[in-house]
């Protein structure tokens, strides 16, 4: 036996499995094959910072629920991954998936130290054969949590430069390879197998170990084939309540958007339009007025009281970021901006201490409902409350990835230079043509139409600067030159100390929905009628919502206590309106923090509205009014604010007479 082979005997319940692990790979087994490059590549996080309203939003997240879960929530604080007796499955990995980029992007010493301590504990508990997860029965363990933890540790190693964590990931991937040769993936792991391609890709770049390519191929062969599902599966709304399956699950589908493009980096196949076709199908049958598809939890149609799950929004954003980087298709930037500025912030209280499991486009009340009266497909009557873990705790753990990863995707580089993929306030630096080059976006986008791109090079540097022109604007004007929407402006010039002025030209307009009603949109932002409300706070303790029945945790008490308590909201202003005209007056307001707040919205549109007969039942408005005949002859001028800044709202409404 070669000296550099480690001999391990892994005991299963049935028969011992003999495995050879080769951590220091012989040169004969190393390969020089380079995987495909993405069109756009991320800039190292140490050279990247958020500014303006986006930095304030990240700070709110760090000071709110996400940044404090390890202090207050047993499923993270007492996780079995850390030696405790709480959740041993996805909750700690999900939380780390958001708090790791948050800590490094903010360069927050305290948060980085806490995260680093947890990573060291997890790495220190890795078993000698490479297995990570805290479980007693490997055969039946759903490997989704193992895959996710490997992804998170790979991300941490990239950000921190800690080679020992890369070594841990490499050994964990080889163990995964050995394990699935005997016990194939199932359940959530089968539905989300492609997430393992992120750590596999990094580990392969570092080691050139061909077994990692074999692992990628085995995962693809044994996991869900979403491309075949798209061709053969209807993706129709379940006909009966409480119906549930993996194929209709909105989070799985949001994640799966990137599956073919990601696997295409390992093969000659590529995405070949799969992601666009899948999203088109989902929006055709389940598209909500705010540009995302429903899912509470499974796909639930187009009606404005159907919910869409926060996890699905966060994962949809990550898929869009991945697809934009891999394919360079600006359509994914449009989808990403739409989610980031509308559906995402609408799911939180302004201080980010409470969140919803399900949000509704027309959300006139958030109060506990009898389960037989809720419109949701498989979620209970608390799913639309704001709180610590309404309905179920997966979004509590998983919501933290959305804003940090979005911020990190805004500026990237390609083979020709730099690319501004979303003009939010960020700054970054990297070497372009061997010259250290910095770029800063001076912006309050999407709340303002004009922004500046400031580029600094110590010497003249000629390269391409690509600026994504969103498809939802009328046109862009860059240094006096007009560009059409839906593509990239490609500016090639010699940069030194340069400033580029950009203006997005936007017009408020009503956008027709799948239900024959309308929603108001201007640029990246949807607008909604904000309702005045009365807030009811609930502090109490009850058992965990984690899957104790799946033997992945023990039942324990979870405390809801201010500021991480539950909230119900009750309307105190009229909501039964229709649009009376297409006359709109847009105005800018001061930009405060929190920017997504009904108290101080950064912009508003005055609309002409009229009251119509529209009924309420069980704390929710009916999906459609009785008719659109005005109740009075009065036309009211009412101010709409960004959808993402609302708590209670009406967003999708008819026009008079239609």
Question: Which properties best describe this structure?
Answer:
24% strand; 7-stranded antiparallel sheet; 10-stranded mixed sheet
Helix share, percent? 25-40%
Q: Which regions contain 5 or more consecutive residues with pLDDT less than 50?
A: 1-32
What is the 3D shape?
globular
Rg: 25 Å
Task: Briefly note the structural class of the backbone.
Answer: alpha+beta
Number of strands: 27
- Give average pLDDT, whole number: 92
Straight-line distance between termini: 80 Å
What is the tally of helical segments? 18
Residue fraction in strands: 15-25%
Largest sheet: 10 strands, mixed
Layout of secondary structure:
Blueprint lengths: L5 E6 L4 E6 L19 E2 L5 E3 L1 H12 L1 H8 L1 H4 L13 H16 L2 H16 L19 H17 L2 H20 L4 H5 L5 H11 L2 H13 L3 H7 L17 H7 L2 H6 L9 H13 L20 E3 H18 L3 H16 L11 E3 L33 H5 L3 H7 L2 E4 L2 E4 L5 E7 L2 E8 L7 E20 L5 E4 L2 E3 L3 E19 L3 E4 L5 E5 L2 E6 L2 E6 L1 E4 L13 E4 L5 E6 L5 E12 L14 E9 L4 E2 L2 E2 L14 E7 L6 E2 L8
Parallel strand pairs: 8-11
Antiparallel strand pairs: 1-2, 3-7, 4-9, 5-6, 7-8, 9-10, 10-11, 11-14, 12-13, 12-14, 15-16, 16-17, 17-26, 17-27, 18-21, 19-20, 22-23, 23-26, 24-25
Helix pairs in contact: 1-4, 4-5, 4-6, 4-18, 6-7, 6-9, 7-10, 9-10, 12-15, 15-16, 15-18
Describe this structure in words.
This protein is an alpha+beta fold. Among the domains are: 411-445 and 450-505, no CATH class; 515-650, no CATH class. Helices cover 31% and strands 24% of the residues. The protein contains 18 helices and 27 strands. The strands form seven sheets. Strands 3, 4, 7, 8, 9, 10, 11, 12, 13 and 14 form a ten-stranded mixed beta sheet that branches. Strands 15, 16, 17, 22, 23, 26 and 27 form a seven-stranded antiparallel beta sheet that branches. The chain has a two-stranded antiparallel ribbon with strand order 1-2. Helix 4 crosses helix 18, helix 6 runs antiparallel to helix 7 and helix 6 crosses helix 9 (197-207). It is globular and about 75 Å long. The N and C termini lie far apart (80 Å). The model is unreliable at 1-32 (pLDDT under 50).
